[in-house]
Design a protein that fits this description.
By secondary structure, the chain is an alpha/beta fold. Bound molecules: 1-deoxynojirimycin (NOJ).
Length: about 750
């Protein structure tokens, strides 16, 4: 380790207590200490070394974008021209590379190793959209905590997660990586994930820095086509798309990542307001911003930057502190400074932010603390992690339909047919962005069912068809199996590479010949349970009209089979609720619950109202929807007052009773509608939810609190504040089945 950095430390401790002004004011003693240490390092750095800290390359591991190198760029590394690697993993590999940085560069500044740890590291949990369907913030946080423990044990300091993009278009493949369509749920899930990754103290060697991405509005890509143009109003940007980012910043997320898209003509990576004004100034964000993969260079094809030099200039002046993979900063920044186009102070500010996080991670004190092969062996696939994988997977499952209580089925059914291309596919169930997840670790539905029933019955398995081709050769075998069975479970859906980055779909029905297979099985007249595994909402109108029981399992991770079997046999009573609307048909997209009313709200019999001739306005399954094996009754919706002052807290309470014969969890949801505003307001906005467990016959009072701040929005003057007037409050089991009450907000 380089002595040069450490001579400063003791003097700093003394001097920082006296420095209360300028950049240090308002900081805690600990923060001041770090600032002084950061400055001491910065003072020693040449311009080249500073720019080096702002440079990140992908190496060795699997590239997660175009044009990655399979080399370490040894010369650059030794010359201090690299501050971070992405995709380099493993306690031993990272130690080797960190040793070079520490011992063979002039200043010995530790590298920060980043990776996309999105829904688990080796122990893979459900895809994030699926986890969001659990509405279980504690367990979502736990998944991120476990992912951090495994990744940190494997040399990783930093994850490019959580992805907090709101999405109203299921064609977009990356809808799978987020928490769905709602900014309120999305914000709480973002907060839970940040807390999970970063833990209580970032210096603990089992925590990693998180990254809120993709800033901003990436989920609003036109037509749901990845990387496509975004053109939304400033109000929608703030009220819908920025909300989870703000929450992540408040939760202390250490880094942000730019998005690839433009917004209203300006690429996010070169946007003059998004980072400098909103993130760094208004929200007071003190961490650093990394570009997305070559998003600096991509400002050239966007038609916003003339060349790499111009792209580098735009990115640095727009607050992008680290260049992922474009090489624009290393190639261009020194000349830009030399020519007086960029002030070196901008570079100092970026480097300060990067070093700050390296200090906060404790890397200057022990650059190798994440490189312990024994810990790596112990933590990867730890039994507790696997147990959680099963627990969160079953809690993510949404029961979409269950006519005549077909589900759950008893374990002593004599013969069960398990059919479909997803029934025994170990790969699909892990989903995209699986970090180091391996399909050999995964338990399929077929295996899960065999494990659940043991010697009790006979399983007949038939694949029936592939996920995505048009052959029907396997249909006959599948139909035969169904005919011989007492009950048929059909597992259909998407492959792992049908959702995720660059995986948008123009048609979101069941791919290939799967619906035809389902129809063929249905014709046998046997009771059919459809299990869907997919990374996005699918259009499943035919299934919904014809198949008695439908389970939405998402892409559930390494314990998929056990989790789904737990639900099928009733060892777990499903409690998931949709975090995103399921459209009837493609032509409805975008369809989301928090839409506006229009001047001509739909009236079925009235021609000149807002509707389609051939399809309904409502989605097939709405936001917040999900069934249970028990039933819940809502009663006695009460407000503490019909009038609310600006300083008051309104209590909204309801009694929820389990009226069925088994214990179950219910997500009680509260929505609000501002009836008249200086700008129009959505017909519903989620403002609270509570997941409760009720024994049969048990009832509980659930109480929500509302303050004026909860009712604030960007009015005609673009000020974020509540406006007095009439509000409706709704409570219920999903965004459609609701009871309502009314109150007035007074000045
Ligand atoms: C591009 C993706 O948009 C981003 O989410 C990811 O973190 C980077 N590639 C790095 O893999």
């Amino acid at each position: 380790m380089k002595k040069v950095i450490f001579i400063f430390i003791t003097t700093l401790i003394v001097s920082c207590t006296t420095m209360e002004t300028g950049r240090y004011s308002g900081l805690t003693l600990e923060e001041k200490l770090i600032e002084k240490r950061v400055d001491s390092v910065l003072n020693l750095m040449t311009l080249t070394e500073k720019i080096g800290q702002m440079n990140q390359y992908s190496t060795w591991g699997e590239p997660t974008g175009p044009g990655a190198e399979e080399s370490l760029r040894m010369e650059d590394l030794k010359a201090g021209k690299i501050g971070s690697f992405i995709n380099l993993t493993g306690a031993e590999n990272t130690r080797i590379v960190q040793e070079i940085a520490m011992n063979e560069t002039r200043l010995g500044i530790p590298l920060i190793f980043g990776l996309d740890v999105i829904h688990g590291y080796r122990t893979i949990f459900p895809v994030p959209l699926g986890e969001a369907a659990s509405w279980d913030l504690e367990r979502i946080e736990k998944s991120a905590r476990i992912a951090a423990i495994e990744a940190a044990a494997s040399g990783i300091h930093w994850t490019f997660a959580p992805m907090v993009d709101i999405c109203r278009d299921p064609r977009w493949g990356r809808i799978m990586e987020g928490a769905g369509e709602d900014p309120f749920l999305g914000s709480l899930v973002a907060e839970a994930r940040v807390k999970g990754f970063q833990g209580e103290n970032l210096e603990d060697p089992n925590t990693i820095a998180a990254c809120a991405k993709h800033y901003a509005a990436y989920g609003a890509a036109e037509g749901g086509r990845d990387y496509n143009t975004v053109d939304i109003s400033e109000r929608t940007l703030h009220e819908i798309y920025l909300k989870p980012f703000k929450k992540a910043a408040e939760a202390g997320v250490r880094t942000f990542m730019n998005s690839f898209n433009e917004i209203g003509g300006i690429p996010a990576t070169g946007h003059p307001e998004l980072v400098p004004e909103i993130l760094k100034k208004d929200w007071g964000f003190r961490g650093f911003v990394v570009s997305d993969w070559n998003s600096i260079g991509e400002m050239i094809p966007h038609g916003y930057a003339r060349d790499m030099a111009h792209a580098a200039e735009l990115a640095i002046t727009s607050g992008t502190d680290m260049d992922m993979q474009a090489g624009c900063y290393t190639r261009e920044l020194d000349t830009l400074v030399m020519n007086g186009i960029i002030d070196e102070k901008l570079i100092d500010e970026a480097v300060r932010r990067i070093l700050r996080i390296k200090f906060q991670l404790g890397l200057f004190d022990d650059p190798f603390k994440y490189c312990d092969p024994d810990r790596e062996k112990e933590m990867i696939l730890h039994p507790d992690h696997i147990e959680h994988a099963r627990d969160i997977a079953r809690r993510s499952i949404v029961l979409l339909k269950n006519d005549n209580g077909l589900l759950p089925i008893s374990k002593d059914k004599k013969t069960i047919a398990v059919i479909g291309p997803l029934a025994d596919d170990q790969d699909a169930i892990l989903g995209e962005w699986r970090a180091k997840g391996l399909s050999e670790d995964a338990i399929t539905l077929k295996r899960g069912i065999i494990q659940a029933i043991g010697e009790n019955g006979t399983i007949l398995y038939a694949k029936g068809c592939e996920i995505d081709d048009d052959s029907d050769e396997g249909f006959a075998g599948a139909v035969n199996a169904a005919r011989l069975a007492d009950v048929v479970i059909v597992a259909l859906g998407e492959s792992a590479l049908m959702s995720g980055e660059a995986l948008s779909r123009g048609n979101i029905g069941l791919p290939g010949n799967q619906e035809e297979l389902l129809k063929a099985i249905h014709r046998t007249g046997k009771p059919v349970i459809l299990v869907l595994m997919n990374g996005r909402p699918l259009t499943i109108q035919w299934a919904s009209e014809n198949i008695p029981s439908i389970i939405e399992a998402w892409l559930p991770g390494i314990r998929a089979g056990n989790a789904i079997a737990d639900v099928i046999f009733g060892d777990y009573n499903p409690s998931g609720k949709l975090p995103v609307s399921f459209p009837y048909v493609m032509g409805q997209i975008p369809v989301y619950y928090n839409h506006k009313n229009t001047g001509r709200p739909m009236q079925p019999e009235q021609r000149y109202t807002s509707k389609y001739l051939d399809i309904p306005n409502e989605p097939l399954y709405p936001f917040g929807y999900g069934l249970s094996y028990t039933t819940f009754e809502y009663s006695e919706l009460k407000l503490s007052s019909e009038i609310m002052g600006m300083e008051d807290e309104l209590s909204v309470s309801v009694i929820v009773k389990n009226t069925g014969d088994r214990a179950g969890e219910e997500v009680v949801q509260m929505y609000v509608r501002d009836m008249v505003g200086s700008v129009t307001r959505p017909v519903l906005e989620l403002k609270g939810f509570s997941k409760i467990l009720l024994e049969p016959g048990q009832e509980k009072e659930v109480e929500f609190k509302l303050t004026a701040a909860d009712l604030a929005f960007y009015g005609a003057d673009m000020q974020f504040k509540p406006e007095p007037g009439t509000f409706k409050v709704f409570v219920g089991t999903n965004s459609v089945d609701l009871s309502e009450a009314e109150f007035a907000l007074k000045e």
